[in-house]
């Protein structure tokens, strides 16, 4: 179970990473494999290709990617515009 969850997280992260880099073909492939996996299909045939893609991309600037994603989230939530976002209501 834990390995399955980890594999799904890797696929989801990879899709986000490649889409953020503008590599939509690879991002779409990662989405396809993730969708197949979540539908219960056997994705063993795809594992080597996924590994090859991830290894071929070279070192990943995780910090830069996280900063970029956080900035996009802040912008979507209105935090980047100086607009105040209401927090959860107090009980």
TrEMBL record:
What protein am I looking at?
Uncharacterized protein
Report the source organism. marine sediment metagenome
